[in-house]
Amino acid sequence: MECEVCGLEEGEIVAQIEGARLHVCHKCAGLGKVLYQPQQHSQRQQAQKPLAQYEVVEEYDARIKNALRNMGLSVGVLAERINEKSSFLERVAAGHAKPTELLARKLEKELGIKLLEEAGVQQGAPTTSKSAGITLGDILEIDRKKKK
Ligand SMILES: [Zn+2]
Predict the structure, then answer these.
(1) What range does the domain containing 97 cover?
(2) pTM
(3) How far is the CA of 121 from the centre of ligand 1 (A)?
(4) What's residue 63's pLDDT?
(5) Radius of gyration for the chain, computed over Cα atoms and rounded to the nearest angstrom
C-alpha cells in the first residue's frame, strides 16, 4: 500500500494524523502519532548481531610468530606499537595465553594476519531441540565434529 499522505513511498506505518488512521511512509509518520510500526527490519538486524561472534583461531601463536619473523619484529617492538605489555605478548606468542578478541584485532591489524574466525552460529544452543528431530543446524554440527 502506498503512503496515504504523499503517495510516493510504501505506507507501512499506521499513524494517527489529525484524527485519522492512515497508512503512511517513514517520512510522513512524523506528521502524526505512530500507532503501528513494523519491526521486521530492526529485529532482523538485532538477530544478526549475536551471530557475528568471533573466536581466536587455535594456531594463533604460530601465526603471530610467523608474522613477527616475516616482518623482522620482536615481541617487544610489537608490544610498544599496540600498547600492550610485552611480557603478556610473549606468553601469547608462545601459545601460553590466548589473546582476547580485542587484542587479536589489534594484532590482526598490526601484523596483517587473521587471528579471528567466526564462531559457530549454533554454539551453546540448547539441546532441547533434539526432541524436534534433526535440523539443518544439527547436521552441520555433526559434520563439523566429524572433521575434527
Ligand atoms: Zn509519505
Answers:
(1) 55-118
(2) 0.48
(3) 39
(4) 97
(5) 25
Please list, residue by residue across 117-136, b when 16 or more beta carbons sit within 10 angstroms of its beta carbon and e when fewer do: eeeeebeeeeeeeeeeeeee
Strand partners, 33: 16
Query: Do residues 90 and 112 both lie within one domain?
Result: yes
Residue 66: partners with Cβ closer than 8 Å, 6 or more residues away: 113
Distance 8 CA to ligand 1 centre (A): 6
Per the structure, how many domains does the chain have? Answer: 2
Backbone torsion region of residue 46, taken as left when φ is above 0, otherwise alpha when ψ lies between -120 and 50, otherwise beta:
alpha
Short-list 85, 90, 86, CA closest to 61: 90
In sequence order, which residues have a C-beta less than 8 Å from that of residue 130 and are 6 or more positions away?
138
Q: How far is the CA of 23 from the centre of ligand 1 (A)?
A: 9
Q: Give percent of the chain with pLDDT exceeding 70.
A: 72
